[in-house]
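#onboarding

Welcome to the new folks! Below is a worked example of what a typical request in this channel looks like: someone posts a single protein sequence, and someone else replies with the predicted structure as tokens. Don't worry about understanding the tokens yet, we'll cover that in week two.

Example request:
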Amino acid sequence: MNKRMKEEKSKTDTKKKILDALYFSVLLAVSYVIVAFGQPVWVGWLGYFAAFFGYALFWRAMCFFKSKLMRFSLATLWFSAVHGIGLSWMTETHYHGYFIILVYLFLLLGVGVQFGFLSLFIMKRKSFSLSQMLAIASLWTILEWVRLFFLSGYTWNPVGMALAANNITVQIASLVGIYGMSFWVILVNTMSFKVLFVERTKKLCATWASFMIFPFLFGTVHYYMHKDQVDMKESYSVVLVQPALLPEQKDPLATYAYSFISPLYQWERILHFIKDSAKEDIDLIVLPESVVPFGARIPFYSLESVANVWENVLGKESTQSFPRLRYPLARKNDKKQWLVSNTFWAQSLANFYETEVVIGLEDADTILKRNYNAAFFLQPFGYEAKRYEKQILVPLGEYFPFSWVKSMAAKFGITGQFTPGKDTKVFFGQKLPLGISICYEETYGDLIRKNRLKGARLFVNITNDVWFPNSTLPQQHFELGRLRAIENGVPIIRACNTGITVAIDSLGRTVKKMKGPEFAIEEIAGALYVKVPLHHFPTLYTLAGDKFILMLSFLFIGLFIKKEPQKLFFLRKK
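Example response:
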């Protein structure tokens, strides 16, 4: 009898282990698919599931392990793999070589360890309280925020982007920004974990439902409160240029120098693009980051060759728009021939179309021996171009964070470096003030917010996403730019060398985008003429920035420590 009972118990135990293993595998796989692909770039509608219970499913799978080390390791690996999907664009090695894979793996490990640490605070116990859930969400918010202070900072793939695919739910960014959205996602998932897998109380279920509904309720009210005003507001006519040139086509010193296209012809293409798109009066022309080689002030082109191009494209009378020949627009060479710079071209554009121009060009301060990745603002018949210097530089690509990496970077063809700018600048044009950002800066909410605080009514981003071709980078970059518009209630326009050239209104809606096949975004060349609705409105995020959600986070952690200090030591218990 005892033998039979043992056999039956053994079969029962084996069956339970098989069912547990199957349950664990399903939870792990489903949670991974939901969270990894629940982003605007991939499958937007999956983001709702990720925001509601995607992380909760993983935490339930993690609880099959009693060992803290196993739980930490599993959470680290799982989130690293999740982040690996979001950051997959970084695996493109064409321009950066295999060194970029090391950077990619390092970043995955870093964010994975953060999530592994957070997951240790998840408890499959009835004592898992609301104050503890608030503290966990607060801790994650702070962990995402501190990424901004490592080297130049890391802003990609915050978990709050799960809410960004829908024009309604993403409106809560106007209250708390992207880090507040991340707070909400983690908090709702901790509640889901307890309600689905620990215990259900009426109070917790009501709280859980209230939090889940809030983005929809607030978003609907906020969206429809401003929608009609955005649609009826006066517009601002802009031309956004997208040259769609590869690095080897712009740089004569590139590895594939045989692909190099003369800057004279590059400018000719730009003139054609603008002429073909500009059907009406223009308020602003925007050309992307480092749009042509040889910087802003180097007198590289003969005046005669420039005049020939202008006459061929825009007519014989067009050269009357040329500005007065003076430095830094022009200079005579040893043969007493006039040579002109890229700034001369830009000023001529401003004069010819009687409009303002924003152009991305590299610039050098020969006295201080500094190089800048810069944007210039020019007004028609103006005397001096105003310059904004990029503040946040990309490590290795634009500066060397440590002296010892110079020799390593040189092996991959990275030799130059820039000096970071010191301040945000808003340029006050004839119709409205413009806040300019360059490339990666657009992903920093608080930096773009400074433009708004200084009076910007339109955000202008110039960028170049060509360094990771055939990847999701342009789309991810676009989604973060869209978020900046919503956070501050201000429209944004983006001119990209390759990427997504687009105009977005203050509610985050696409007004008009450069047309072309999504799978060949690097090949779309031309200029986009668009009338941008100028309606703008104050937001809580503009007023308080990230400080609001961070102060709440520190407050919730402090209250938890004061109220339930004994739970700080639960990690030591079996």
